[in-house]
Write a structure and sequence with these properties.
The chain is of the alpha/beta class. The chain contains ten helices and ten strands. The strands form two sheets. The protein has a six-stranded mixed beta sheet, sandwiched between helices. Strand 4 and strand 5 form a beta hairpin.
């Protein structure tokens, strides 16, 4: 029996060309970052900038440290015993990795949406209002909740049942509710770790459209395994891959980072070419 191997196919991107990087406003400056669990590196020597009001995609094979990387940006990894970080992460010029920086304050400005929807077992209204109440942002609370739900393209679907349990929503609605909860407190950056991996194509399209619609107000950094998704929504794309140290240990490294259009049509590194065309990963 003969087996026909289909040639790798490029993922097409329709992203508009970006201005030169020197004309973009830098929101993160990541310099020489190593992230380690129990002394073993998960990512090593990551250096890149993230730009304001763009969608930046983090792509790469499983185990290359994509989730570890974005969790460094709001210090979520601090919650993991044995985690250490070296190097610097400057947010608007301030190094946010130091012991003198309150990680809770960092997360107030840099929100996160996780892979699977995780609404609280509360009403739809209370899910969105929760962070606002915790942070003392109670003025015009109902209006703030409505605005967040509207931004998340959910208001028209839930406005007549705000007291219903959030768990009664569909998976796609729950994920949009989690986005509403994240943006209600008016963060500067929203990190998204595979936000559509558990959703059907229609719900996935809704999440992607949200990022496109909202990037004028927020900066998005999204981890995705989906090359088509990165090509559709991202302005910049960073490709991480797996390397091995002298003793055989595996860790993630940043191979290439550039405008999405270039990454998918004319990457500079053959490893990027191989990944985005489906030859490995």
């Amino acid at each position: 029996m003969s087996i026909t191997i289909q040639p790798a196919v490029r993922v097409e991107t329709k992203r508009q060309p970006l201005p030169p990087r020197e004309r973009l406003e830098r929101i993160f400056n990541i310099d020489g970052v190593d992230a380690l669990y129990g002394g073993k590196p998960a990512i090593k020597d990551v250096t890149m900038d993230v730009y304001k009001n763009l969608v930046t995609a983090i792509i790469g094979p499983s185990g290359c440290g994509k989730s570890t990387f974005i969790r460094c940006l709001n210090r979520m990894n601090d919650l993991i015993p044995g985690f250490t970080l070296t190097g610097t992460i400057r947010y608007h010029g301030q190094d946010i990795t130091g012991n003198d920086v309150d990680p809770v304050a960092v997360r107030r400005h840099i929100g996160m949406v996780f892979q699977r929807p995780n609404p609280f077992p509360k009403s739809i209204y209370d899910n969105v209002a929760w962070g606002l109440k915790v942070l003392g942002m109670k003025d015009g609370l109902a209006d703030r909740v409505e605005r967040a739900l509207t931004q998340a393209a959910l208001w028209d679907e839930v406005k007549d049942r705000l007291k219903a349990s959030a768990l009664s929503l569909s998976g796609g609605q729950q994920q949009r509710l989690c986005i509403a909860r994240a943006i209600a407190v008016e963060p500067d950056v929203v990190l998204m770790d595979e936000p559509a991996s558990a959703l059907d194509p229609i719900a996935t399209a809704a999440i992607e459209q949200l990022m496109t619609d909202l990037k004028g107000e927020y900066t998005f950094v999204i981890v995705t395994h989906n090359m088509q998704q990165a090509a559709r929504v991202a302005d910049m794309t960073a490709f991480f891959s797996i390397s091995r140290g002298d003793e055989g240990e595996r860790y993630g490294e940043l191979v290439e980072y550039d405008a999405t259009q270039k990454m998918f049509t004319a990457p500079s590194d053959t490893r990027t070419e191989d990944y985005v065309t489906g030859r490995f990963g």
